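Methods: example folding runs. The two proteins below were folded one after another, and each record is reproduced exactly as written to the output file, sequence line first and structure-token line second.
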Amino acid sequence: MISIKSVTAATSVLSDLDMEQLRQDSDKLLVAAPAIPAHDAQRKGRYRRHGDLFIGGPYPWPQYCTAARMKGVALVVWQLVHHQVRMTRKPEVTLPRNLLTAVGISRNAKARALRDLEKVGLIQVRCERGRAARITLVPLPNGSSASS
């Protein structure tokens, strides 16, 4: 609880301060900010590449459980699709070969996983002859539970 004495003591301390002196002191504290190089200014707000690669969530729990129950590398492929959607900020993505080889997934294993994930309804795959498969994540309807 604040007493009247403490309030009057605080106001008397504030009235004793020289406001002009405070302004002059604050001007001495201001330092010019260094100029941002042109190449950094262009990249501002964009994803900046760091030395270490990463992959992370959050993942929708019902969909994660469904993918985890599947055989083979379906869970890893589903996580990589999520990763690509987040990194590219596009709803339809491809899985680059270098990303798959980094985690040890072959072309055939990728094809099987995409087929299985599409069969259970976690993704939609659009294939065109001579082109990479275009993958879209499919959200589960509200209120539904994970099933395999």
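Second run, written to the same file directly after the first:
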Amino acid sequence: MGLIAVDLEFKKRRPCVCLKFRTETTEGRRLSLQDIASLGKLRAQFWGLFAECFRRPAGRRLLAVYVRGLLSNVQRKNVEALALEQPLPVRTLQRFLESIQGDENLLRDRCQQLIATEHTDPEASGLIDETGTTKSGSQTAGVKRQYNDNRGKLENCINSVALGSPGFVDQSAQQYRIQDTCKGPQVWEIQGHTCWRKTPSSDLVSRQGTLLVARHVLTGEQKYFFSNRVPGRDGWTLRDLLQVAFARAQVEGCFREVKEELGWDHFECRGGRCIHRHLYATILSGLFCARVRQKLSPSKLVISGELLTLEQVRRAANVFLETIDLPRPQRRRKYEQELQHQRYHQRRNATASRAHHKTRLKKLRDLGIDPDQIKSVFPKQPPC
């Protein structure tokens, strides 16, 4: 997944775009010292795609400094922390967000164009979603008392709206293998029925739609979906509707990653332009990590022990930038330490994933369900 635009909730809702793209990998090798050393060249190539967004050298330099801070190991990625990490006067980085000349909207558009042309997927789908950021006071642009889905309550917050690039009584449920996660295949029982929504005037018949009810076979969790499409019409199938309905989990996972690793919600500023520049810089950092991950990750499977996560790519980029001015022997020593750290966590994640797969498959087979023999919404992963 890749976030490529964002807008705050003001009087109008203008959603951003978040697209799913297929990852092409180079099979059969692990991340190496040469891969970390190559991040400089990849970074320079990537940076050249956005040179026109800030025409003056000062703007381009400060954007690079800001993204460098977002890729660092700083825990709280607000302006002050990022400036002190560089080191750089705090006021200089504040001026980058509020007054340095540049076209942040062009930066957003370039991210959109890049994903649409180079990272799209034939089965990509769009999902409207939002993520909330708690804010005290009433002076920050876009803040008001509203429902914050992250915390499940009404409070002062900013909501960023996103578009993600992602009659039953006598009806027997169909079992679908919805998706394969790091903990094994998820199987849901699906029931669907065509229906009509009630119109505001209550005297007109609305267009026919489809109501879907899904129940998780292991936990009993239920989800309800309504679509304005009907299976069997205009080329739509039940599998297509389920693929769109359950793609939201990938969008939520993308939000979680950029919040935890890149400081999406760490901004401490009030102006609308300042907030947008922080969010767009975060998107740019995430896109860079996604492209590096696509190029260098040996495998897409956690159980292989080779899958690169966004956190690992960010750490690799950070160690490259931290050691760029050190002598070669010291750089190599730092690279080896980072590789040792990453391979340890890759092995641990693989071991945990295999254990979760084994446990979930046993529970499904105890219910008489073979995930390999039922319909699948998304392409099935190779067996463990």
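Comment on the second run: The mean pLDDT is 79.
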